DNA sequence: ATATGTGCAAAAGATTTGCAAGATC
DNA sequence: GATCTTGCAAATCTTTTGCACATAT
């Protein structure tokens, strides 16, 4: 269970700067609620939902940010490259994870116990680019999730069948 | 725009047989509603939603199958290998496509116009298996979607910026 | 006969939207 | 001051569930 090292203070500032840049480009205005959500998201260790952000977006005065505001802010955070949407986790809703200043990775999920492993394959990334080019596309992103059963779950299966 | 050739009558029968096998294995019973949904799905050319299946699941007497029944049937169709769930298409809901007797493929989507291209890379499939093995997993499935901008959309962008 | 399947309505979730009040440029 | 933002409530949408009746084994 590798814990993703979090951004330090300087990293947070760079991330906020990236957000402000996008906000400015779009002719929008600075707002503290938006930055509260961004900080909550950037500080989050693993995968999180909108609900999680609502709860953790409290500031010193314990002001929460409403869910609708979080929903309105998310597209900006994605566009600024602070977060990525992920589709791991079975039923439950939509999850996100930090993308800013973090190496890209995809996920391998156990359909038995839900364990999630991160992986990265430069070979796959390369083939993806080739595929895109061959169809005249310029890649802007991708999502790639592998599903399978982990060793532990296969053992468990064997027992219960015995 | 390559149209996926559809299953012929014999193929439909093989698919229904696969469904019946799963149904029997689970100790469930034969039902015509389930087969109506299966047929509607198998006959569908491209990508479709639950709503689409409801509309097209009419039989000779124009009996529709209720959405709740479609929802209850889908897991069986997936398990029987008749369909696959896909995550292409931006906002809109969940889509499915036929998987039975059809070569596996993934999708490349244009974020500008929504065009969807199917691709297949044996090299990627191979690396996926290697990755899974390296983490002690046995693969049961995956979803892989590339996003980018197609040639036409890039041209359009250039014009409007001009 | 008994257990499963289906239609229908209601419930449950997640996300979006309209609006009045508050913040920013 | 004009315009963007936010909180809040209500509206939407998709999917799930409870139940009474229909159907299959």
Descriptive overview:
The structure is a homodimer of 162-residue chains. Chain A has a 3-stranded mixed sheet with strand order 4-3-5. In chain A, α1 (9-25) packs across α2 (32-43). With 162 residues, chain A is an alpha+beta fold. Chain A has 2 domains: 1-102, Arc Repressor Mutant, subunit A (Orthogonal Bundle); 104-162, Dna Ligase, domain 1 (2-Layer Sandwich). Chain A is built from 6 helices and 5 strands; from the N terminus they run ααααββββαβα. The longest helix of chain A has 17 residues, at 9-25. Helices cover 45% and strands 18% of the residues of chain A. The two termini of chain A are 30 Å apart. The model of chain A has no long low-confidence stretch (mean pLDDT 92). The A-B interface holds A 87, 108, 110-111, 117, 119, 121, 123-124, 127-128, 131-132, 135-151, 154 and B 87, 108, 110-111, 117, 119, 121, 123-124, 127-128, 131-132, 135-151, 154. β5 of chain A pairs antiparallel with β5 (138-149) of chain B, so a sheet runs across the interface. Chain B binds a DNA duplex (25 and 25 nucleotides) through α2 and α4.
Task: Itemize the secondary structure elements and their pairings.
2 copies of one chain form a homodimer.
Chain A: H1 9-25, H2 32-43, H3 50-56, H4 67-79, E1 83-86, E2 95-98, E3 106-110, E4 116-119, H5 122-134, E5 138-149, H6 151-161
Parallel strand pairs in A: 3-5
Antiparallel strand pairs in A: 1-2, 3-4
Helix pairs in contact in A: 1-2, 2-4
Chain B binds a DNA duplex (25 and 25 nucleotides) through residues 27-34, 50-51, 65-69, 71-72, 93-94.
């Amino acid at each position: 269970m590798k814990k993703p090292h979090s951004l330090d203070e300087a990293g947070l500032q760079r991330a906020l700067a990236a957000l402000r840049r996008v906000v400015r480009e779009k002719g929008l205005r600075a707002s503290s609620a938006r930055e509260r959500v961004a900080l909550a998201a950037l500080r989050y260790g693993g995968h999180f939902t909108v609900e999680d952000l609502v709860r953790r977006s409290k500031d010193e005065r314990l002001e929460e940010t409403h869910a609708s505001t979080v929903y309105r802010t998310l597209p900006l955070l994605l566009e600024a490259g602070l977060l990525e949407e992920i589709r791991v986790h079975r039923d439950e809703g939509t999850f996100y994870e930090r993308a800013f200043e973090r190496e890209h990775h995809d996920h391998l999920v156990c359909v038995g116990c839900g364990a999630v492993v991160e992986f990265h394959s430069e070979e796959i990334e390369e083939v993806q680019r080739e595929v895109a080019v061959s169809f005249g596309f310029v890649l802007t992103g991708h999502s790639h999730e592998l599903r399978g059963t982990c060793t532990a779950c296969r053992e468990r299966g064997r027992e219960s069948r015995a």
